[in-house]
Amino acid sequence: MNGSNRPGPNILITGTPGVGKSTMCRLLAERSGLTWLEVSKLAIENKCLEEYDEVYRCPVLDEDKLLDGMEPAMQEGGKIVDYHGAEFFPERWFDIVFVLRADNTILYDRLVARGYTGKKLEDNIDCEIFQTILEEAKASYRDEIVHELQSNTPEEMEQNVNRICQWLEQWKIDNK
Ligand code: DAT
Question: Residue 78: enclosing H or E segment and its boundaries?
Answer without folding.
Answer: none
